[in-house]
Design goal:
Chain A is an all-alpha fold. Chain A is built from 4 helices and no strands. Classes of the chains: A mainly alpha, B mainly alpha.
Amino acid sequence: MNEMDTLTRGAVEAQADDPGDWALALVLRAGLLLAAALLGAALAASLLFRIPLVGDEGFLALPPEGGLAAMVGISAHLGIVLLGLTPVARVALSVPLFARAGERSQALIGLGVLALLLLSMVLGAVE
Amino acid sequence: MIPALLFATGVGAGALGALIGVGGGIVLVPVLSLAFGVPLQHAVAVSLACVIASSTGAAAAYVRDHRIDVRLGMQLELFTVAGAIAGAFVAPLLPKAAIEILFGLMVIPVVRSLLRPAPAEEVARVEGRGGARNLPLGCAASFGAGTLSAVLGIGGGPIKVPVMTLILGVPFKVATATSNFMIGVTAAASVFVYLSRGLLDLGIAVPTVLGVIAGATFGARLMPHVPTRLLKKVFAVVLGLVGAQMLAKGLGVDPGGLL
């Protein structure tokens, strides 16, 4: 076993007792399931009632007819947004977990990643 | 008909990803673009949404099993996310041919990783907490991986895993799990940009993402019953042909119906 393997394995091993691991796994799994449920509902309703899913009109652009068509659009959009937000939520959750464990530099790194993710949303919306 | 075909494509990509360890993007972008005629940027955006789905499911299992170096993953995420944002803004400025050529070239390390023999089983019981070597170089390479991920709609595992194993000295299995953990965040950064710009077509994304989720679940259960080594070899050949097709398209050469 070489030295670097020992070091990185050490990092993984040190995490083995982290109480936050189950919380991170839960957030990822719950986010994915909820997003899949919303997307599944949107697709089922779209096929059942022959409502086209909103295409590429842009972020939260909803069909003008309202009613069921709007619901399908909202469900599809929410599903995709929730899917994208799930890894973001994982990063957000890790910040207080690291802070509570006294790992300030790691918490700051997490905040940096979060700031960049927020920047991507803002920049995308502004463009 | 089309949603069913897109769902089936997603199932295939998700199952393949689970079975042979490639991200869905390397399958989805060429299939959506070449077989369904989806504009390349839309295919990239849909693929990134699918990459988030497959990565999130796998990462949940890896975190629970303590296979991920969360600390190293988050350090590198700073750079992959920055690279992904840069890539999402650069991508629309790139000519379609350039993206096709890049994609064709990107297939080479993927095919190489598929044909490489699996590393020996590693023991992961050691004391203490450490770091990785050559971190600045690893961070720079991670920025590049994030940029390529956003431009090509792939997870970037074939870049991140060698970076972690060869440059940072991370054990292979930890590197693959940590790479998977990072991919979701990297793809999320660029998906938000694509979504905000109206490049994510929900009519294509919804059935494909659902297919990938179903396929990944199905593939994980199928794994013990499938000769994955043979599958990897067959897929490497198919992927090599697809990569050649994309490269030929990008270079303006008649591919002669490789697909």
